[in-house]
Structure formats: structure tokens, C-alpha cells
């Protein structure tokens, strides 16, 4: 007899469907759909993308070392990642219920706080490298 945790893991793997390259291609399709959904439905994502379209090319114009340039770019991309996760949290909370609830507010506030920290990180890293 299998332990329950092993059975659940095996059953979950069976639900995945595709394997190998087909699974990678399918995951890419899902990722692209997520990026399009964020671009179409999230003003904050579009604003952050615009900031990245300004800062990332600027990072290549600055006379800094390779490591510094990588950091300048990485923090910009990190903020995009945090915004995607924040949007995902908001979508899940709204999917569960649009009713005002303290835990729903807390989840959304925490996602927003994570984004604020990411934006502060951009400011800090760019300031330390450039000043």
C-alpha cells in the first residue's frame, strides 16, 4: 500500500499530460498568455514595463562594469516579476470572492508592499552604482 503523500504526487504528475519538449512548449504558451494578460489588464505592469524600456537601455549606455550593469538590469526585471506575482495574488483573491474581508485585504496589501520594496531596490541599486 502506498503512503498517501506518494499517491497524491503520482496522481498530480498524471494530470500534467505532456512531457519533454511538448511540456516546455506548452509552458511557454501559458507564460506568453500570462504576459499578455498582464499587459492588457494591469496598468501597473504597463507602467513598470515603460520604466524598464527606459532604464534597461540606459544601463547599456552607462560606463559601468559588467557586474554593475547586470545588477542595474536585474533589479528592473525583478520588479516586473514582483508585479506579475502581485497581479496573480490579486486575481486569486478576487476569484475567491469580491467580498471585503480582512484576509483578502492583507493578501493584496502584502503583494503591494512587495512591489514597493522592489521599487525601492531599483532606486537603491541605481543610486549606489551611479553616485
From TrEMBL:
Transmembrane segments: 44-64, 71-93, 113-130
InterPro entries documented for this protein: DAGK (IPR000829), DAGK_prok (IPR033718), DAGK_sf (IPR036945)
Keyword set, alphabetical order: ATP-binding, Cell inner membrane, Cell membrane, Kinase, Lipid biosynthesis, Lipid metabolism, Magnesium, Membrane, Metal-binding, Nucleotide-binding, Phospholipid biosynthesis, Phospholipid metabolism, Transferase, Transmembrane, Transmembrane helix
Provenance organism: Pseudomonas zhanjiangensis
Protein name: Diacylglycerol kinase
Pfam families per record: DAGK_prokar
Role this protein plays: Catalyzes the ATP-dependent phosphorylation of sn-l,2-diacylglycerol (DAG) to phosphatidic acid. Involved in the recycling of diacylglycerol produced as a by-product during membrane-derived oligosaccharide (MDO) biosynthesis.
Membrane topology of this protein: Multi-pass membrane protein
Keyword Ribosomal protein: no
Catalysed conversion reaction: a 1,2-diacyl-sn-glycerol + ATP = a 1,2-diacyl-sn-glycero-3-phosphate + ADP + H(+)
Taxonomic lineage: Bacteria, Pseudomonadati, Pseudomonadota, Gammaproteobacteria, Pseudomonadales
